[in-house]
Design brief:
This protein is about 35% helix and about 20% strand. The chain contains 14 helices and 28 strands. Strands 1, 2, 3, 8 and 9 form a 5-stranded parallel sheet that branches. A 5-stranded mixed sheet has the order 4-5-7-6-10. It has a 5-stranded antiparallel sheet with strand order 15-16-17-18-19, with no helix packed on it.
Length: about 650
């Protein structure tokens, strides 16, 4: 049981004492703090236990009157502090364990709010609130009461803090749709902030998606972790691929040790004097405003703020010379003030394009099965919804909203930024496999039922019903009776009855040479592509001396986080997989190919190179039986094109890099 007077004096002394770690020892602020603290400590009688309490109270009175009262005054700069706990929905723990973390963390917040009436707290991710509602309804009602009081801020826009590069455009839209809808229905809150402090990079499609969804601000801190280039701004207008702009704020929390600032900032802040100062010191757009934002509280695994955080804030709020003011606030109010400062301000900088995180690059190739499940289910649910709309238009069948919402909720949950990138523990992926199996069962069952109703509405017309899920008129490859056939063109988002498919091909295979109407391809003795001649453009596609579809093994020894990182040195040296166990010609309806089996180490690669005529495409269908460690397998195509830029597909468009 603490002695409240002694505890209070401890914090009275602690905050200014922490300032001495970064203040210039020859400055007036440093000298004044030492003078006041020396006098207060000198008043304590450590030798007489009976008198000690009285001297503690006397020292407290002195500091409150002379130091915090007469000496301190509001400072121009302010670090606005928001109670927060970052809770990874899964990482070193499972989704199931997160449900317990939420209860413990939020219960702590509620208890501290009883003791500290000034305390305000924000938390994102509707999934966490849904879990609390299901697991601890009494606690949930207390949270709702604090929201009504304005002390608890449910904000963040997305269902979870989702990955923004591996997910589809439709998934990003659904993340915001599901997230904003939950906050509105449960709390009456219109979420205006996309809150993603810990996500591994941000697509250039996001600004447009956010603006169309009624989101006005984007907040992160992760780009400060870049290992190569430092972002030049902390407050700016971020323009996406269509020119849409969204206001953006980077969290700048770091400790001030009296040295120049560093690039790395955190979303798991503290309220000690060093971080109150360092957060404002690191903020670069001081020509726009005199406030910086700090989120404080233990996080990643939850926990949130503690009594010490709040006690230190009470001292930092006094306006000690040499420290910014420390003020408790909310994200929404802070950004609204900042918005008024930057609206129409010519000093507001602009960033065009993606916010690429130069870190954690290995997460694009880790846990490939999880990524594959996500992509297949994304396509399944988009197609199922399209078919359901057609069924409604044709037959008046009620729209299957509940099934679609249940399946999409499973997908959105597993797009959390430590699940889909492959950065979680093994148990997380055992669960996600089960989740995707459930989502697939719901989606495939729905699609199958709807297709049957659509086909039944066509009457007794004979043929195959072919659906085109794309937004453009196109022909397509489908499987009929175990063979790949080519359909005639089908209307966008439409269907037609096909009585006859193209089922043959005119591809010529002569030894190691394959010829289509568009290409002439020559394989070398290792069954790599030695020449790829484009008849239409009358030119060789590959660089002189290079080979196409060259399988390369690179060393993969990251300096940390085996599943997360990929080091630049890995580009410098590689081995080429040239061994061939077999190479056979294969036939499949409108396509013909070469199936090549390559052993290496304890692994093997089976590649079928499929050729088509009248289609201008070559497919490389690759299955890898992988048993290697600390090696990365890549396929190289050194084309004879001189360019410093390339165009890459992203959600709802493309971007040059």
């Amino acid at each position: 049981v603490p002695d409240r007077d002694v505890q209070a004096l401890y914090y009275d002394i602690l905050y200014p004492q922490q300032m001495l770690d970064y203040l210039d020892s020859e400055s007036d602020a440093y000298a004044q703090i030492v003078r006041y603290l020396y006098h207060a400590v000198s008043m304590l009688d450590f030798g007489n236990p009976d008198q000690f309490g009285d001297t503690v109270r006397a020292a407290r009175d002195f500091l409150q009157t002379e130091f915090y009262g007469a000496y301190c005054t509001p400072q121009k700069a302010t670090t606005v502090c928001i109670g927060h706990t970052h809770i990874d929905c899964a990482w070193l723990w499972t989704l199931r364990q997160t449900k317990e973390k939420v209860q413990r963390s939020f219960a702590t917040v509620l208890e501290l709010m009883k003791r500290y009436p000034e305390y305000r707290f924000m938390s994102s991710q509707p999934l966490l609130y849904r879990d609390l509602k299901e697991e601890a309804p009494v606690l949930y009602e207390e949270v709702k009461a604090r929201v009504r009081e304005g002390r608890w801020e449910p904000e963040g826009a997305m269902w979870v803090e989702a990955d923004c590069n591996l997910t589809s455009g439709e998934s990003l839209v659904r993340q915001i749709l599901f997230g904003k809808r939950f906050f509105r229905e449960e709390f009456g809150v219109n979420s205006r902030i996309l809150w993603l402090p810990d996500v591994f990079g941000y697509s250039a499609a996001l600004p447009q998606i956010l603006k169309k969804s009624g989101v006005d601000w984007f907040v992160t801190s992760k780009i400060s972790w870049n290992d190569t280039n430092q972002m030049p701004y902390d407050t700016f207008l971020w323009r996406g691929i269509d020119g849409t702009g969204i206001y953006t704020y980077f969290l700048t929390a770091q400790r001030d040790n009296g040295q120049p600032t560093v690039r790395h900032t955190t979303y798991v802040g503290k309220t000690d004097a060093q971080m109150i100062s360092g957060t404002y010191k690191r903020y670069r757009q001081k020509n726009l405003n005199s406030e910086a934002l700090l989120t404080f509280g233990f996080g990643d695994g939850g926990g949130g703020p503690t009594a010490e955080h709040l006690e230190l804030l009470r001292r930092g709020a006094k306006g000690i010379p040499g420290s910014p003011n420390a003020a408790i606030g909310s994200a929404g109010e802070f950004l609204s003030r900042l918005e008024r400062e930057i609206a129409g301000n010519p000093l507001l900088p602009t960033w065009q394009g993606e916010l690429y995180l130069e870190f954690h690059r290995g997460t694009y190739t880790t846990q490939a099965n999880n990524k594959r499940n996500n992509r297949q289910c994304e396509l399944l649910y988009q197609n199922a919804e399209l078919l359901a709309c057609i069924d409604y238009a044709l037959n008046g069948t009620p729209f299957p909203q509940n099934d679609l919402r249940k399946g999409w909720t499973i997908l959105l949950t597993n797009q959390f930024h430590d699940i889909i990138p492959g950065s979680s523990i093994r148990e997380v992926y055992a669960q996600s496999d089960r989740d995707y199996a459930e989502a697939r069962s719901i989606g495939e069952g729905l699609a199958s039922r709807v297709k049957k109703r659509i086909v039944a509405s066509l009457g007794r017309e004979e043929g195959y019903v072919v659906f085109n899920p794309h937004g453009f008129r196109t022909e397509g490859l489908v499987q009929v009776n175990g063979r790949t056939v080519l359909t005639p063109p089908v209307a966008p988002k439409g269907y037609t009855v096909v009585r006859q498919f193209r089922t043959d091909n005119r591809i010529r295979v002569d030894g190691r040479t394959v010829e289509t109407d568009r290409y002439r391809v020559l394989f070398d003795e290792a069954w790599q592509i030695a020449s790829l001649y484009d008849k239409e453009n009358d030119r060789e596609v590959l660089k002189s001396g290079g080979v196409g579809n060259e399988l390369r093994l690179y060393a993969d020894y990251p300096d940390s986080y085996d599943a997360w990182e990929w080091q630049a040195y890995s580009r410098d040296a590689y081995q080429v997989v040239t061994a061939v166990a077999s190479a056979d010609t294969v036939e499949d309806g409108v396509r013909r190919g070469i199936r090549i089996v390559r052993p290496f180490g304890a692994s093997s690669v089976t590649q079928t190179v499929w050729f088509y005529d009248r289609m201008g495409r070559i497919d490389f269908e690759t299955v890898v039986d992988w048993h290697e460690r600390h090696q990365m397998l890549k396929a190289a195509f050194p084309v004879d094109v001189q360019s410093g830029r390339a165009t890459f597909e992203i959600q709802f468009g493309t971007i040059e890099r």
